[in-house]
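Suppose a colleague, Dr. K., hands you the sequence of a protein chain of 328 amino acids and asks what its three-dimensional shape might be. Before reaching for any lab equipment, you can write down a predicted structure in C-alpha cell form. Begin with the sequence itself:
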Amino acid sequence: MSTQNEVTVNGGGRQYGTKLTAKGAAALAACILEGTKLEITEIAVGDGGGAYYEPMTDQTALVHEVWRAEVLTCEKSVLNPNTLDIKGVIPSDAGGFVIREMGVFDAAGTLIGVCNTPDMEKTDAASGAGGKLDLIMHLVVTDADAVQVVIKSSLDSISLEDARELLKEKQDKLTGQEGRVPVFNRDGVLEAQPLSELLKDKQDKLTGQPGQVPVFNDAGDLEAQDFSSTTVFTFAAADWTQPPDWTPAEGAEASEYDGSQGYVVSIPAATHKRKSGDFGFHVFHQVEGKYVTNTWAALGTGADYDGESKAITLSCSAPYPGKILFVG
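The predicted structure, expressed as C-alpha cells, is then:
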C-alpha cells in the first residue's frame, strides 16, 4: 500500500515506486519549519547491484550508482500539486549499464528520494546504438512549495517555459532595438546582439535548408539544425515480439517464449526518420483510451538505435499499447 509520500505502480508482477527517504522527509520538515527551501540539485541512476529490489525509506544511497548529473527540469504535476516531476537526461556518450534505480540528492549530497524501475539498458555511442535517455522521477512531498530545484544546465537543455520567463524579465533590454535578436552570451546572460553579426560567414550553413533554424552548437558557433523532424509512431500490444536473439531451451518449441528477456518492437529508419542515435524521445502508454506517461510501461521503455540497420528497437518488460514521439 502506498503512503502519502510514495508513488507505486505494478508491472510484470513486480512493484515499482518512488519513496521519500527518512532523511529527505526530515530535511523537508526542517525547511517547512524554518521557512526555507530544500534544494534538490542532482539526479542519479544505478543498476541495483544487478537485481530488482524495492526501495526503502532508510536508504542513504543507491545500491550501486552508475551515473549522476545535475537536474535538468522540475515541474509540479498537473494531477497532484504535491508531486514533483524531476527530469534528467543521460547523454548519448554515457552508458554501458542497466538502470534499475534512480535517486535525487540535495545540495549537501543527501538522498532525498529513491525509486526502482523496470530494467532499462543504456548503451553508449561507441556501441553504435546509443542515444539520449530521458529520466523522469515523480516525487511526492508534503509541501511542494518548500522544495527548490537548482538547475544549472546548458542552453540546449533549457525549457520553453524557462526561456519565456527569461525573455519576460529582460524585455526592457530587448525592445526597440531594430536588427537585434535575444541570445545568451559567453557568461550565460541574455542580451541583444546584431543579427547581421550572428549570420556573418554562416550563410552557407543557413541557406536552402527547409525546416532548419540557426542555433549555437557546443562550440559556440552558429549552425543550422533541424527542429521540424518530429515523428510519432503508434504501436499495439500485439506488435511486441520476443527479442531476435532469444533461443528456446533444449526440447522446447519456439512458440513457448516465457517473456524472461522482455519484448521488443522494431521501427525501421523510413518510419522513425532519425539520422543517428543522437535523438530524444517520449513514450506514452495507452490506458483506457488516454495516453499517459506516468506508468510502469512508459517509464520502463528503452529506445536503441542500430548503427548498421538504422532501425530503432523499443524494449520493455511486457507488451502494451502506446506511442513514441521522436524529437531531434
